[in-house]
Amino acid sequence: MLSVENLCKTFVNRKKGKTERVQAVKDVSFQCRPGEIFGLLGPNGAGKTTTLRCISTLIKPTSGDVHIDQYSVLKNEKEIRSRLGFLTSDMKLDGFFTPDYMMDYFGRLNKMDKINIDRMKRQLYSELQMEDFITKKIDKLSTGMKQKTAIAISLIHDPDVIVFDEPTNGLDVITSKSVTDFLLKQAEAGKTVLISTHIMTEAEKLCDSFGILVDGEIKELGTLKHILSSSSADNLEDLFFSYILPERRTQDVQ
Amino acid sequence: MFSDSMIIFRKELKRIFTDRRTLIFLVLLPLIMLPAMYSVMAKMDQAKQQDIAAYTSSIAFYEGRGNGDTAERFMEKLSAMNTLITPVDEDDIPRIRQSITEKETELLIVLPDSLQARMDDYETFDVGVYFNSASDYSQFAMGSVRGILQELNDEMVRWRVISRGIPEEVLSVFTVNDGDIIFDLAAEGSAMAKFIGLLLPFFIIIYLFVNSMKVGLDSVAGEKERGTLAVLLVNQVSRLSIVIGKMLSVMVAAIVGAASSILGLIIGSRYFASMFGETGGLSGYSMGGTGLVQFAVLIIPLAILVASMVIVISTYARNSKEGQGMIMPLYFAVMILGMATMQSGENAPAWMSRTPVVNSLLAMKSVFMHDAGWSSVLFASLSSCILAAILIYLTLRMFSSEKILFRI
Q1: What are phi and psi of B40, to 5 degrees?
Q2: Is residue B384 part of a domain?
Q3: Which of B217, B250, B287, B320 has the largest count of CB atoms under 10 Å?
Q4: Number of folded domains in chain B?
């Protein structure tokens, strides 16, 4: 299980002798259970990526903690990484190599033996329909193929928790569908899945529970039924817009 | 941990040595370009010397007043040169001087008045030779005329002595090293060793640095820029393994690149040495077994140190371009230290033997000259290792800093 507890992240910028503090994530808490897909929704700059980066151990929380099972991102970085498959849109793959080489490379770095690497490769290539391009240089691949490769590499060590930041961003409908189907399968297989997105229709179809993040704060948390019951909005998109376009919310209340 | 470093090291090497462009810049270009460059330079230099020697210099000659036969003797001597001598009047002198400045005439020789009378009175007089140091032809003609005038001066001195009834042998009291005996007691090949010791350490440090820069700046700063570093950081690999793996790959690339450059230098050495008045190139030179071991003990820690310098800057920089700007002052500093080593003479100042990089270059110089002591070799090697360890630690600290690692 993935548990985010009172997570805060403040960035300190020093420019021309002036110190500026930007609180990107403010006291965020939520849980994501095995077999469940949790959607972290929010506009650009809401703090989604920062939250996910804290979960992935890329950056350290200013306060609060994140646990995967009994392991903490503050104390057990290595154990967290062994249980986590993480992907964000600003993480790229070295275009000089082929997907197959990179799968072997990251498999070895994740302490896997050849048998397990080959097993995971076969499984991921088949599920993500990658067989046709595994020996082509990543530089030569389409955006969709690159995204599938990035997903496969992030999951080569068969992690229990999958954290993807906007996994369908920039993909065509077919590739987007194959990625969302893949995530559903992973949840069905008992994995804990956390995705961030601002595509509400996709989130509504895919996620079991949601957290709406605006200006670094969780505004709504729970299942779709739960969060809609406490508002006048008819669907997730209306609810979402009521937070990022306050005038719309006022109209709703009136 | 070390196995992770090796996985990263192998991947980095694959990237470096299977990328055609990197391979061309790192290995092929120095191997082809250096001999080609030195060959062209030597051939150009040779052609220039031949052209100057074949050139008919234009010399204006003012014989002074009342010099008659004596001036004739000057003219006669000068006519042995490949020159066109034009007698000029006193009034022409300002115009001719201007013509020399404009490189239209090579020389103007001005004899003083009443030469014979001065000679008869045993007076010393001055012959003025105007030339242009910015013109190769003028400078070459000046050298030839100086020799001829010196010869004439010797003849005149001999004539003065003989005319007084003194035997001309008094003019020479002793000679130095005149005869068939070999007076130069340098061991066979040591002159070449000195030449190599003077130049090669400088070239080695420059090539190590340049090649480390070629691959090292891309290794971390380039990965930050492309967004590929974060993928590595979220996997089960320690930051130390990443730093060591990358540093080792930069070191190997730097050594391979430097070896290729040195090989190019050896191939081109025949031309290169000829430009400095040496002959034969470096091909006949041998370091010997101990020399090779000492060289390895010096070069590997030095390459690790240079790679660490580049990696620390590469880690701090936002991107390769910023890294290039940051590394240039360090590159110039290393170049200056390399030049200081070249000019250090046989007894280098104490600070040089205590300063990392410089002490390695000094020890390397001694190794090439076959007179290196193990203590200086080991001290230099140890100081490189210690400084490299400090830089690796600094890099590790940077790898733990979000501000540095994610400032793109």
Answers
A1: -65, -45
A2: yes
A3: B250
A4: 2
Give the pLDDT confidence score for residue A254 in this predicted structure: 44
Q: Which fold has domain A2-253?
A: Rossmann fold (3.40.50)
Domain boundary among B171, B205, B222: B171
* pLDDT (tens digit per residue) in A48-68: 999 999 999 989 999 999 999
Q: Is residue B43 part of a domain?
A: no
- Long-range residue pairs from B73-79, CB within 8 A, at least 24 positions apart, any chain: B73/B152, B74/B109, B74/B111, B74/B152, B77/B148, B77/B149, B77/B151, B77/B152, B78/B109, B78/B145, B78/B148
Summarize pLDDT for B205-217 with one digit per residue, the tens. Answer: 988 898 899 889 9
Residues B20 and B67 in one domain: no
Among the partner-chain residues B19, B226, B233, the one whose CB lies closest to the CB of A92 is B226
Is residue A249 pLDDT above 70, yes or no? no
* Cα distance from N-terminal residue to C-terminal residue, chain B: 28
Tokens standing for B389?
């360890």
Whether residues B7 and A105 touch (CB distance < 8 A) is answered with: yes
- Indicate the domain borders of chain A: 2-253
In a domain, B50, yes or no: no
Q: Are residues B320 and B349 in the same domain?
A: yes
The values of phi and psi at residue A131, to 5°, are -50, -35
**Predicted local distance difference test score (pLDDT) of residue B190:** 73
- Candidates B231, B238, B401: best to mutate against A (most CBs of A within 10 A) is B231
Q: Is B377 found in the same domain as B276?
A: yes
pLDDT score of A53: 92
Q: How far is B210 from chain A (nearest CA, A)?
A: 23
Domain-embedded: residue B176: no
Each residue's pLDDT tens digit, B260-300: 888 887 777 766 666 655 555 555 667 778 888 888 899 89
B21 and B89 together in one domain:
no
Decide if pLDDT at B353 tops 70.
Answer: yes
Looking at residue B187, the DSSP 8-state letter turns out to be P
